[in-house]
């Protein structure tokens, strides 16, 4: 009888311990530490350069779950009044300023949302003088105030998600699609692998010093 009681007590303590550990694990939260670019990078980048990041929000993780890539967002570096800035598009719910669609913001603000040092800048080489033409096209879409494409449809130029903006800009500049397009979960996805094709883009800077981590695919 005494042995049975001791065993029962042990089981209760074991279960309680497991539940406590599970609760502690569930309560653990991702703590984002905003990265910063070295000052030297600001003199390296040019108008028309492309910047990619792995975002730190739930939508970013949802997108990466489908593409299996380690990036979730992109933008275009432009120059305005002697200062480098970024044009990109994002949904209002993910925008600090609650702006839905094309955004015009500081590079440091864009970089601050990069997670795990996954921030990459590359330069278009698919065509001579492509950079300035890309920057000019980005300003055109900014002036049009194109809203964000919440349906993530590749065939809606009147609404654009981040890589879709680049898809149409590249077509404007080059006359044809440059993106690696793959079908994922019944949708056609614009893959960030495009920017690691050195026949189209050359690397300018990566926040991560380990080049083997620059582009990976998860299982």
What descriptive keywords fit this protein?
six-stranded antiparallel beta sheet, 2 domains, 22% strand, disordered N terminus, 219 residues, endopeptidase fold (from Nostoc punctiforme), two-stranded antiparallel ribbon, alpha+beta
Quick gist of this model?
The chain is an alpha+beta fold. Helices cover 34% and strands 22% of the residues.
DSSP strand tally = 8
Estimated helix fraction: 25-40%
Q: Give, in spatial order, the strands making up the sheet with the most strands.
A: 4-3-2-1-5-8
Instruction: Label the structural class.
Output: alpha+beta
Largest β-sheet summary: 6 strands, antiparallel
What percent strand?
15-25%
N- to C-terminal separation?
52 Å
Number of helices: 6
Mean pLDDT: 84
**Shape estimate:** globular
Verbal overview:
With 219 residues, this protein is an alpha+beta fold. It folds into 2 domains: 28 residues; 170 residues, endopeptidase fold (from Nostoc punctiforme), CATH 3.90.1720. Helix content is 34%, strand content 22%. The protein contains 6 helices and 8 strands. The protein has a 6-stranded antiparallel beta sheet with strand order 4-3-2-1-5-8. It has a two-stranded antiparallel ribbon with strand order 6-7. Helix 5 crosses helix 6. The longest helix is centred in the N-terminal third of the chain and has 26 residues. The termini are far apart.
Write the SSE topology.
Blueprint (H helix, E strand, L loop, with lengths): L1 H26 L11 H6 L5 E4 L4 H10 L5 E8 L2 E8 L10 E6 H5 L7 E6 L5 H15 L17 H13 L5 E5 L2 E5 L9 E6 L13
């Amino acid at each position: 009888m005494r042995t049975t009681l001791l065993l029962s007590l042990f089981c209760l303590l074991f279960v309680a311990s497991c539940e406590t550990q599970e609760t502690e694990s569930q309560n653990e939260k991702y703590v984002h530490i905003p990265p910063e670019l070295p000052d030297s990078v600001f003199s390296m980048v040019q108008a028309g350069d492309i910047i990619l990041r792995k975002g730190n929000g739930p939508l970013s993780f949802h997108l990466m779950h489908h593409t299996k890539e380690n990036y979730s967002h992109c933008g275009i570096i432009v120059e305005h009044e002697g200062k480098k800035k970024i044009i990109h598009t994002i949904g209002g719910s993910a925008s600090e300023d609650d702006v839905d669609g094309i955004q015009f913001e500081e590079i440091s603000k864009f970089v601050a949302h990069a997670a795990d040092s996954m921030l990459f800048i590359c330069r278009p080489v698919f065509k001579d003088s492509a950079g300035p033409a890309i920057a000019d096209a980005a300003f055109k879409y900014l002036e049009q105030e194109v809203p964000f494409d919440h349906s993530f449809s590749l065939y809606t130029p009147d609404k654009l998600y981040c890589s879709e903006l680049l898809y149409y800009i590249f077509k404007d500049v080059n006359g044809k699609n440059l993106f690696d397009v793959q079908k994922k979960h019944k949708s056609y996805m614009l893959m960030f692998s495009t920017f690691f094709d050195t026949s189209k883009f050359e690397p300018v800077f990566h926040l991560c010093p380990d080049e083997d981590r620059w582009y990976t695919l998860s299982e």
